[in-house]
């Protein structure tokens, strides 16, 4: 007997392995998945400009990165004793304007290099709702607690999202024609927008994205991972949510990662993942008697495992 519905997932045509270079961009769920890549020691970079939720803001950042358009003084502003940019997350904000500009431009330079070398780009879209700063008539990635009256709130149409995603892909393919795209929709519900409004927002993302993915131009280098569908259908129980009842908890993240790794990571990498997992668990082990001979032998054996793995894959560091 089956007591739950399971989402069918197609195996990737271009699976990720330990030689792959992965760049992850998007919502907070992108960071949940990236933490798994980090744990298993894949070559992975995540959200160099912080968490970004909407497709247009992601496109704007990739436009800067691909063309190496540096941030200038006109692109930052002072509010609540810190300098900010409307194009990036507040995690990058700084009390010193010059330091902020240096941080942003370093992120452009490094991301440009990573994008040229990347084998896979994972983009996680969170919402179709955007805020537009009225003074500049520009869509922002983050409002930085600037008073709400200075913004208008809008829902991106399916057509605008489709064009934005296509523009993003074209920009990136100009820089790196061989890159593989993996798209997903964040399972986190943006209830501050309203329950009905959240569903509408997600539906616009789905419609735009699947319209692109079924096109012959894009489907050879693009795949879709159903993280939203897994959360809503396979894990449709509040025991899989954090206390806010909106974000997936660790059990849910582990389960979604399991399905992702079974379908998007090469079979040849599974044994290495198991080795890494054993080492990670051993490193977290705390001995009752650190000076004992038994513990010293344990540490020596652990170091041998780390050295053997390092010989096979020099980029892996613990």
Automatic annotation (TrEMBL):
Residues 21-260 form the GSCFA domain. This is GSCFA domain-containing protein. Its EC number is 3.1.-.-. InterPro entries: GSCFA (IPR014982). GO terms for molecular function: hydrolase activity. The keyword Hydrolase applies. Keywords: Hydrolase.
